[in-house]
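Morning run. Coffee first, then this:
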Amino acid sequence: MIQNHPKKIAVSRLSSLGDLLLTTPVIRGLKQQYPNSEIDFVVKKQYADVLKFNPNISNIIVYDPGNVSSIKDEIKNNGYDLIIDLQNNYRSRSLIKNINTEIRRFHKPSIKKFLLVRFKINLLRELKTIPQMYAEAADVQLDEIGLELFIPDNITPQIEKGKNFIGLCPGSKHFTKCWPKEYFIELGNSLSEKGFNIAVIGGRDDISICGYVSDRIKGSINLSNENDLFQTAANIIQCKAVVCNDSGLMHVSAAVGIPMIAIFGSTVKEFGFVPYHVRNLLLENNSLSCRPCSHIGLSECPQKHFKCMKEISPNSVLENLLKVISI
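And here it is:
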């Protein structure tokens, strides 16, 4: 254990969008616990914007798979008193191999996840969030504030606050984490009839589905883009609430404090990736014995019925969304 406060700390979490946002309460906790320490963060280039303007971080070390040796040398030569590996995989471990300093690692509940997915044996009933698990690994205390994403002042939203916008985020990396696009369309048109404006939001991988959904919702605005995180976040801030899947944009919405409906299909809240410290309702079909079928999502439903998503109706989402808005 460290006898004195560390002067220099390195935190490593290479990817991805949601996982990195979930580290921000821990970074804040480290800065509160060690206010005079420098905190550096090791992250892949495509996710560096998540942390770019975070005032608790002194320096970002960009992980480049083509230049690993120089990154190893940089980490070794920086003389860190403490290294916290919140990724804990082969790549992150190799970066700090043979460095003589205190290292704290995130221990993934992989066996418990496997038992829940494969045999439906639930040893995750304690329902710890990922920030709580990260904090235990880093040995820091969390405050009651949520996730953080710092947006530059020069980013102009593409929609206007106060215009009753609801954000619909129909995308996700895996099919089994996506509520059907036809349901998003039905929900959007129902909301439009009730006087709400609809903004369809997504990143590069969501452009196709966002276009499909937006084209079929009367008067909606398609705000999908080429992974412009700051623009997306600035747009979400203008929304009254968001409806999303278990996706990175769920965590972006949480980071900017926007109420949400989060719809879970093949994944479950026990894995810890839930909206953190933000007003939300998490909708999932708890009547199925086949859930969860994966801890990250799949390209198709193993049972071929996809009831985990199809049995969550647009009307039920609408009713719950109105409850979230009215609180």
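The chain has twelve helices and eleven strands. Good start to the day.
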